[in-house]
Design brief:
single chain; 359 residues; alpha/beta; Dna Ligase, domain 1; 5-stranded mixed β-sheet; 28% strand
């Protein structure tokens, strides 16, 4: 006779956000019924270890991960289990609308959707789907969230973590983790556009109702703006970053800096407009009070350009906020922890979302 099971212990993973040029780690823990930041760290990587989300040098990348894990702010981690991000540009995520049907029919329709829209053979993909609960009580169709990723990519990430002495616990697209961190209670009555302006790439995500609706990743970067400042003002990278974050697009304080930044921001604004228009034409449906984008949330290192949020808000006619990656972790009005300021937190949004997914 088997003994009854009174307690089930689930491994508590740490979050690992891998990108082409950086490693970010977050470990959350429970204390008296509340979540708190147990450990964290950010580490730059040399070029050539990863490119466009693909692993190029497994040995050097493994060493970089091992150094990161062993040099965190609050000492070594107490778990080998890891929840790892998957690069947005290598994954497919979209909500499709189907007539009301049974589960078997949904599975068949999803398979057709993946075959028709993902440029990878079905036999080489991991894909999944789930019905998105509507906000409206009565609807004449189903919203289905479909996600897919190449098996070879997931296997390469799993192997990398294993050779680094870690145990893969879960893999999740960056967009899913970001939305979990940034959308309060994971519900948006009106569509929200999330812009993650990173060092190398920028991700655009639309969240409406109870789910992501659309995601895309393009080569637009905060590093490009930094390079423009360096060339125009003849300063080094550290000074360019300081000027970008502390002065930004305030022409009264530094007109040459303003002239160096504005062309890049104008191009960026046009990219945002194009993405919003694409959303309206292809997927401008959401169960709520409207289908127009009601708010833009900025996150990532590029979100720290001083005045960037106000520039976008005026240019697009849409409210723009710097996203709060603690909105589903800390009790309001808290927006930072003693160890990690709100300004620094914007770079950790994906990692915080990954960590939050395990509670």
């Amino acid at each position: 006779m088997n003994s009854p099971t009174f307690f089930k212990i689930t491994p508590q993973p740490f979050a690992l956000d891998l990108s082409d040029r950086s490693i970010k780690i977050i470990k959350l823990a429970h204390k008296r019924g509340e979540l708190f930041l147990e450990n964290f760290g950010e580490f730059n990587m040399d070029p050539g270890l990863m490119e466009d989300g693909a692993i190029l040098d497994e040995n050097k990348l493994r060493n970089a991960i091992e150094r990161a894990v062993n040099n965190l702010k609050n000492g070594p981690l107490n778990t080998p289990y890891v929840a790892c991000s998957l690069p947005e540009q290598k994954t497919y995520l979209r909500v499709i609308q189907l007539p009301k049907m049974n589960e078997k029919e949904i599975a068949s329709a999803v398979q057709w959707e993946v075959e028709a829209n993902v440029p990878v053979p079905l036999s080489e993909l991991n894909f999944d789907w789930q019905v998105v609960p509507p906000l409206a009580s009565q609807t004449d169709h189903l919203d289905i969230l479909v996600s897919a990723a190449p098996i070879s990519m997931v296997d390469s990430y799993a192997k990398l973590l294993s050779v680094a002495g870690l145990k893969p616990f879960s893999f999740e697209p960056e967009s899913v983790a970001l939305a979990r961190a940034l959308i309060k209670d994971e519900v948006a009555l009106n569509p929200v556009l999330i812009i993650d302006l990173g060092r190398i790439r920028t991700s655009f995500l639309v969240y409406a109702g109870r789910s992501l609706r659309l995601s895309s990743s393009v080569i637009l970067s905060g590093a490009g703006i930094t390079d423009s400042i360096m060339r125009a003002l003849k300063v080094d990278e550290n000074e360019a970053v300081r000027l970008k974050e502390e002065v930004g697009i305030n022409a009264k304080e530094n007109e040459p800096l303003y002239e160096a930044i504005v062309p890049s921001l104008t191009d960026f604004k046009e990219q945002v407009q194009g993405y919003i228009e694409f959303y309206y034409k292809s997927l401008g449906h959401a169960h709520g009070s409207g289908s127009k984008v009601g708010k833009i949330l900025l996150v990532g290192g590029g979100a720290r350009i001083k005045g960037f949020d106000k520039y976008l808000a005026v240019s697009l006619g849409i409210p723009v906020d710097i996203a709060n990656p603690w909105v589903n972790i800390l009790k309001p009005p808290l927006k930072e922890t003693p160890e990690l300021s709100f300004q620094e937190s914007t770079r950790y949004a994906t990692a915080l979302g990954l960590a939050l997914g395990n509670f």
